[in-house]
Amino acid sequence: MKEQLRNGILLISEPFMQDQNFKKTVVLLADYTAEEGSVGFVLNRPTNLKIHELISSFPDFDSNVYYGGPVGIDTIHYVHRKGDLIEGSRLICDGLYWGGDFNQIKFLVKNEVLKRSDIRFYIGYSGWSQGQLDEEMEIKSWLVGDVDFNYIFSSKIPNMWKHVMNIKGANFRVIADTSDYHSLN
Q1: Phi first, then psi: what are they for 129, rounded to 5°?
Q2: How many Å apart are CA 61 and CA 147, to the nearest integer?
Q3: Which of 54, 94, 60 is nearest to 77 (CA)?
Q4: Is the pTM of this model over 0.85?
Q5: pLDDT number for residue 33
Q6: CA 59 from chain center: how many Å?
Q7: Second-level CATH architecture of 9-184
Q8: d(CA 18, CA 24)
Q9: Who wins on pLDDT, 126 or 150?
Q10: Pairing of strands 37-42, 26-33
């Protein structure tokens, strides 16, 4: 049965994926368009950087920036809950937005309207060209999961890939416990 790709779902890398950019990752699919390509953000690759360390004009904000993926690593992206306050925000799914006016973001952070639990910043993104993600689904590179805002805005899930696999059920719990060292499995 083919999984339905759409904005706002999770892409969970299959356990033996060899691509180091996506090995044991959970990706939020932010913009799925089979005809034009797709964009997502890796949710479980934090960096040790803060946004104000990357952009000197940004107010102090105690929140780690995440590695969104291997494409456009010279760009900053953000996913947030405040689309009603930030012009130019793109709806991902109910209550979840991508992008918008960066000056408004800085203003809202400075005035403590935007909190850590409302926004996450990413260096780069994950991108697929026209039809590429569909092809990767056909060869079973990805599993599909439901989004939970805690995956996006909380840093209290130490091994998100394993956690998400466990939620998928008993068959996936076994897979989640497999070692990266195949000779130990």
Answers
A1: -75, 175
A2: 25
A3: 54
A4: yes
A5: 86
A6: 23
A7: 3-Layer(aba) Sandwich (3.40)
A8: 9
A9: 126
A10: antiparallel
Which pLDDT tens digit goes with each residue over 99-120?
999 999 999 999 999 999 999 9
Spell out where the chain has E strands.
Answer: 9-13, 26-33, 37-42, 46-50, 64-67, 71-80, 90-93, 96-98, 119-128, 142-146
The residue extents of the domains of the chain are 9-184
Outline where the chain has alpha helix (H): 51-54, 102-110, 132-138, 149-153, 160-167, 170-176
Which residues share a beta bridge with 33? 37
φ, ψ for residue 135, nearest 5 deg? -65, -40
3 pLDDT above the threshold of 90:
no
Distance CA 114, CA 46 (A): 20
Q: Is 171 left (phi over 0), alpha (psi -120 to 50) or beta?
A: alpha
All residues at 6 or more sequence positions from 165 whose CB lies less than 8 Å from its CB, including other chains: 12, 15, 143, 172, 173, 175, 176
Q: Which amino acid is at 124?
A: G
